[in-house]
Design a protein that fits this description.
alpha/beta; Rossmann fold; eight-stranded parallel beta sheet; 10 helices; globular
Length: 263
């Protein structure tokens, strides 16, 4: 049976993994292999991050480089999270993700990235103790949410908004615990707060959902919120940061390479 992907015009760009996932019935013959890849990607991620028992995920734009004030802010956030005893987790890419990982590294903390394959290649940033590269966005989010006790959103675009909205949805629906969610950058996030308040007024979300967020410009206030609603609320004990064979130096784990490449 001929794979429908082979019938594409020669000048048509190759499909991304997510396009392959969402394509229609002609691709059904490849679904078992795709399911196997997804399972293997999750297994690799779980193995690589198995000893990350205290993570905080920091979301933020890949487009703000070092000269931008948000970059310095993200470094400060990463360092402050690390000093609370958490592993800083990000999407592993450039911009504010890099800055948060850099702040964790400079503070002597652990720094983890769950990177994503994109049509325009996104390389893991150089401040990661461990990097897992995912083919599928949903796998990346599973890994970030699975190991996190809190979520911090710095200014970002659609990717940041997607991750933030999913975290809030999981908390709202009881799929994960009531972990603290902090948005840093009052002016930037005010329209998002306004939208939530408008939704609450329209009855499409509960009024309590708006209270899930702390929006602040103060890193110390953000850390106090995380300390109260994560460390104290869940009885977390600070552990010394010891070298880990899983989070130590070494080649990045890439699902495609370990699973034998793309079928």
């Amino acid at each position: 049976m001929t794979d429908a992907q082979d019938l594409r015009p020669d000048d048509e760009p190759a499909r991304t993994p997510d396009e392959e996932l969402l394509v229609g019935p002609p691709e059904v013959a490849t679904d078992p292999m795709r399911i196997q890849r997804m399972r293997r990607e999750l297994e690799i991620g779980f193995a690589a991050l198995a000893d990350v028992d205290r993570g905080v995920t920091v979301f933020g734009s890949a487009r703000y480089g070092e000269p931008h004030p948000y970059y310095r802010l993200a470094c400060d956030v990463g360092g402050a999270v690390a000093r609370l005893g958490f592993t800083v987790m990000t999407g592993g890419g450039p911009g504010l993700m890099e800055a948060a990982n850099r702040g964790a590294r400079e503070a002597g903390g652990r720094s983890v990235g769950c990177n994503i394959e994109l049509p325009r290649e996104q390389q893991p940033n150089p401040y990661l103790d461990r990097s897992v590269t995912c083919r599928y966005f949903f796998v990346r989010k599973v890994l970030l949410f699975k190991y996190s006790y809190a979520f911090v959103a710095l200014p970002g675009g659609l990717g940041t908004l997607d991750e933030l909205s999913e975290a809030l949805t999981l908390i709202h629906t009881g799929k994960i615990r009531d972990f603290p969610v902090v948005l840093i950058g009052c002016a930037y996030w005010q329209p998002f707060r306004d939208m939530l308040q408008a939704m609450a007024a329209a009855g499409t979300v509960g009024t309590g959902d708006v209270q899930l967020l702390l929006i602040t410009d103060d890193v110390d206030e953000a850390m106090a919120h995380i300390r109260l609603h994560a460390i104290d609320a869940f009885g977390l004990r600070r552990r010394p940061l010891k070298p880990s064979p899983l989070l130590g130096e070494g080649p990045a784990l890439t699902a495609a390479s370990i699973a034998g490449g793309r079928p």
